[in-house]
Design brief:
This is Glycerate dehydrogenase. This protein is an alpha/beta fold. The protein binds glyoxylic acid.
């Protein structure tokens, strides 16, 4: 079986019985057909060509989200994703943001940059905090476990949660954590109406996709003081351009879409690929298959 993989040192070291690796990069594309494609950190402009490679039967995207592939996948090509590669780091990132916000670290960092010793009583813990995890899946479960020692009260919302139940949970929340994928149904799901229903002072954490939130509505809710603040790893637009008003919001903590990143991510991605291909070569179905009905 011939498989296209990114040209990275960790992937160059891969050996799997019966698999021939062909390496792609912005500088060089291999020749000849390939049955599989491991899509990751793809140079801009290359993705379309890779997804339409002659002989392609399956694609493994080493991301959790699939919206970059979904609409562009030729008929009959099987798609796999790799949420397990990212779940724990994202959950840790959410917790880190919540603790940073509760302890006011962003405000102290701002004061530090001005060399000011600025004390305040306006600090909290997560004791008793009502946390709504909107998009409760693998990451949500890990986050719930991580939050347990902090005595937060977690409610998970899934797509099948009845609207009334969801709205009641949102109205009580001190934190709303968005872990939803980007789909036609979730685009702009956090709009002015939803923000208005949140408790005054509630915080929002978006670790899903930027387009889940209507950015203008978010800015308005922050500026009016209705929303306590936001921790955003994803934004709309993304990357957030220089001069965008979100940069200037005192109670917004922005990270540049790195929630799932760890120092050893590439190594873990290569290890994941090896395990995936070993399963396939053994005639077993590897994990992560995205059924056609789940693609948007
Ligand atoms: C990152 O956002 C991912 O989908 O893996």
């Amino acid at each position: 079986m011939r498989v296209l993989v990114p040209d990275l040192p960790e992937f160059r070291e891969l050996r799997v019985e019966g698999v021939e690796f062909a390496f792609y990069s912005a500088e060089q594309l291999p020749e000849g057909e390939a049955e599989g494609l491991v899509l990751w950190l793809t140079p801009p402009g290359l993705q379309g060509q890779l997804l339409n490679w002659p002989g392609l039967k399956w694609v493994l995207t080493l991301t959790a989200g699939i919206e970059h592939v979904a609409g562009a996948l030729p008929e009959g090509v099987t798609l796999y994703n790799a949420h397990r590669l990212h779940d724990r780091a994202v959950a840790v990132h959410v917790l880190a943001g919540m603790l940073a916000a509760a302890r006011g670290l962003h405000r102290f960092r701002d004061a530090q940059q001005e060399g000011r010793w600025k004390r305040t009583l306006d600090l909290g813990t997560l004791d008793g905090a009502r946390v709504v995890i909107w998009g409760y899946g693998h990451i949500g479960k890990i986050l719930e476990d991580l939050l347990r020692p902090f005595s937060a009260k977690v409610t998970g919302i899934r797509s099948r949660t009845p609207d009334a139940e969801r709205d009641a949970a949102l109205a009580e929340a001190d934190w709303v954590v968005l872990l939803l994928p980007s789909t036609p149904e979730t685009k702009g799901i956090v709009n002015a109406d939803v923000l208005a229903r949140l408790k005054p002072g509630a915080w929002l954490s978006n670790q899903g996709r930027g387009d889940l939130i209507d950015t203008d509505a978010l800015l308005a809710a922050l500026e009016s003081g209705h929303l306590g603040g936001a921790v955003l790893d994803v934004t709309d637009p993304e990357p957030l351009p220089e001069g965008h008003p979100l940069w200037q919001q005192p109670n917004v903590i922005i990270t540049p879409h790195i929630a799932s990143t760890t120092r050893d991510l590439i190594r873990r991605g290569a290890d994941y690929t090896r395990a995936f291909l070993t399963e396939m070569q053994a005639g077993r179905e590897p994990e992560g298959r995205v059924e056609a009905g789940q693609r948007y």
